[in-house]
Design a protein that fits this description.
The protein has 141 residues and is an all-alpha fold. It has 4 helices and no strands. The protein has one domain. The chain is 67% helix and 0% strand. Helix 1 runs antiparallel to helix 2.
Length: 141
């Protein structure tokens, strides 16, 4: 990591490439968050379904309750998978590989500095001397 994360020593195309890779990783992080939402919502729905089954059973609708319990409660959401397995497979086969390439690119090209593109943007867009536009940590005046 360097003292000035805007990395004036790097060419613009490299910085733009690092920025695009960072943006892609941020998008993957959002997708992963939505996948966790899918996981949690599906699990909650299964618990609510179990409540419905018990209420139907209590009301004397045992055939419907039994069918729901047998055919839907605990059902795989896709072939051979519950949602936690989808999340684990995504993490193992895609998300972790994506993060590793992001780290590799930062290590090889910017000494591990993150958000170099944004650091340069901040340097360009701030008003020198303005109290709300200080350089802040890891940027040189």
């Amino acid at each position: 990591m360097t003292a000035d994360r805007s990395r004036p020593d790097l060419d613009d195309t490299t910085v733009e490439g690092l920025g695009k890779l960072s943006e892609a990783l941020e998008t993957i992080e959002q997708a992963r968050g939505q996948l966790y939402g899918f996981h949690q919502h599906s699990g909650k729905a299964d618990l609510l379904l179990q409540d419905a089954v018990e209420l139907f059973r209590k009301a004397g609708h045992t055939r419907l309750a039994d069918d729901l319990d047998r055919d839907l409660v605990g059902r795989n959401v896709i072939a051979d998978r519950w949602t936690f397995q989808i999340v684990e497979d995504y993490d193992a086969s895609y998300w972790s590989v994506f993060r590793a390439f992001d780290e590799r690119a930062r290590t090889e090209l910017s000494d591990g500095d993150r958000h170099v593109y944004e650091a340069r943007m901040k340097q360009r867009e701030r008003s020198a001397g303005h109290p709300a536009h200080e350089a802040g940590p890891a940027l040189s005046e």
